[in-house]
Every structure is written in structure tokens, then in C-alpha cells.
Amino acid sequence: MNFKNIKLILGREYYTRVTSKSFIWGTILTPIGIGLLIYISTLIMSHTGDEVLKIAVLDKNQSLSSYIESSKSFDFKFSDLPLDSLKKQTEAGDFDGVLLIPELDSIQSSDIQALYYSEKQLGLEMSESLKNRISKGFRKYKMNAFHVEQKTLKLLETNVELNPEPLLEGGKDRSSFTNMVAAVIGGIMGFAMYMVVFIYGMMIMRSVMEEKTSRIVEVIMSSVKPIDLMVGKILGVGAVGLTQLAFWMVLIPLILFGVSLTLGDMEMMTNPGVSDEMMKAAENMGTSGKIGQIIQEVTSLNWWLILPLFIFYFLGGFFLY
Predict the structure, then answer these.
(1) Across the chain, which distance is largest between two alpha carbons, in Å?
(2) Alpha helices of the chain — where are they, by DSSP H?
(3) Helix 226-270 vs helix 178-213: angle between axes, to the nearest 10 degrees?
(4) How far apart are alpha carbons 62 and 83 in whole angstroms?
(5) Cα angle 233-236-241, degrees, rounded to a multiple of 5
(6) Do 77 and 99 contact (CB within 8 A), yes or no?
(7) pTM score, whole prediction
(8) Contact, 113 vs 102, CB < 8 A?
(9) CA 190 – CA 206 distance, rounded (Å)
(10) Of 54, 136, 196, 206, which sits with the fewest C-beta atoms within 10 Å of its C-beta?
(11) Cβ(308)–Cβ(188) under 8 Å?
């Protein structure tokens, strides 16, 4: 092999691809696209809507009116009218739907089949929220029937955290987030490695096909050997892949951090009261401490070993492909 020719081909492949518009836009837009996807998905999942459903409740037990409470999404109106009358009122627009709660066979019944009559189909989130409201109402009703206080029930709940400790003194301190952080980082790196190997492996094949179709390869073959041409292409495209991964490893964390800050600021601006409550709850639950532990775990990883191994496995997979 002629290393001078390989170096020339490598430099040409690297320079032409790195300076191409597709590489520049792909390197910039991919992290932005990931950030927008997470941002929009979070907004959609957190959006509960401003619509309040007015629901007529027909309770066959005649005892749940003080336990099923209205919320910002549901306005429950308990009624003693027959089901057909409530359906007619719903058709007339007085209600958005009719909720029929069947009579319990026994106070110990655990499975209840409630019926909801409406012309409009409930969305998945609204349906789950309605089921949770009914479930909590039955829970309070049963607690009152069995004379169980909420404080007593809370005392029965016990949260257990398993903190790993080093076997020998002076060993590395670990937390309950060690395995989670390692699994997440390994998954992200593995996925990025797979995508880049696949895309740039296909890029080599496309390049060879284009040169054969345009007959440029016949001109090139008059100056260099086939093995030099192939090795130069593989090394050049592999260097392009490593360059793109290096940019993504810097841009993606920055964009995700900005998305998290934006979502937090929007939550505080749109609903400051709820945000204050959430912040107090987070402080009581030690959420800030958990975030600090996760950041500490990420920074305490042996990146001087992870990054060289990542490059090694990427190149191994790329050359094998």
C-alpha cells in the first residue's frame, strides 16, 4: 500500500464531506431536532387543556357525592334523575356526558365497571384522569366505612432505598443512581454508534457506486491501486463520522439542558402557584439532592477510559461493517 496516496484520498474524502452543506446542516439540525422532539412531546403530554367537562353523575350507591371531587378538568353534578332523563339533558347540551356508577355488591368489592355516556370520545389522558378520580372517591368512601384515617394509612407506607457501598475501605463511593446513569449513557452511546456506522457505511457504498457510474473510478485507478482507494475512502469517511459524533456529544447535552430550563421557566410563568407547590414538594422529597447525585455520578465516571473505548468500538464496528 502507498500511504501517500491513502493520505491524499483520506484528506479529499474528509474535506469534501465535512465542508458539504449536508454534513453541516445534518450536524446542526440533528441535535436541534432531538431537542424540539423532546420539547414538543413534553408540552403535549403536560397539556391538560382549558376545557372543563360538565358530567352528570348517577350514583347507585347514593353515598359517593362527598368523596368524588370536581377538578379543573371535571365538574361533577350528582343527580337522582333516571338515566334516560340525564341522557336527554346531555343531548340538549346541559352536560358533556353522563357517568353511571353501579351499586357495590359488597364494601369489599375491588373491581367496579363504571359507564360513561357521551357523544364525544374521551382522550386517553382525560379517560385516565376520570378513572383516577372515581378510584380515589371509592378509596375515601371505603376508608370512611372501615374507619381508617388517612394519617394511619400513610404510616403504613414505607419507602426503601438501596444504596450500594464499597466492600473495602477507600473504594469508590456509589449511589442508587450509579447503574441507571451507566445504563442511560451506554444506551445513548450505543444508539449513536449504530446510527453513525450504518449511515456512513452506506455513504461509502454510495460513493463507490457514483464513481463507477460516472466512470471517474477508471481515471482514479490509473493513478492509485484499488486497495489504496478503498482504505483511503474508509478512513476518510470514518474520520467524518468521528467528527460528527464529537459535535453531537457537545451540542446535544447543551440543547437538552436548554430545553429543560425552558420547560421549567414556562411552568413557573403559566402556573406560579402550582410551581411553588411543586418546588416545595421537590425540596421535601429531596429531588434537588437526587439531581445533584445524578450530576455527580455523570462527572465521576471514568471518561478518560469511556471515550477512548467508544472511539475504539466505533472504529471496530465501522471497519467490520
Answers:
(1) 94
(2) 3-18, 21-46, 83-91, 124-145, 150-156, 178-213, 216-221, 226-270, 272-285, 287-300, 303-320
(3) 130
(4) 14
(5) 120
(6) no
(7) 0.54
(8) yes
(9) 24
(10) 206
(11) no
CA distance 32 to 37: 8
78-86, Cβ contacts within 8 angstroms, sequence gap of 24 or more: 83/58, 83/117, 86/56, 86/58
Q: Could you tell me which of 37, 24, 293, 311 has the C-alpha nearest to residue 189? A: 311
Residues 70-123 pLDDT 10s = 888 888 999 888 888 988 898 888 888 998 888 877 777 778 888 889 888 777
Residue closest to 174 by CA, chosen among 155, 157, 161: 161
Tell me the backbone φ, ψ of residue 316, rounded to 5 degrees.
Answer: -60, -45
272-292 pLDDT per residue, tens? 444 454 445 444 444 445 556
> Which of 101, 126, 128, 104 has its CA nearest to residue 116?
101
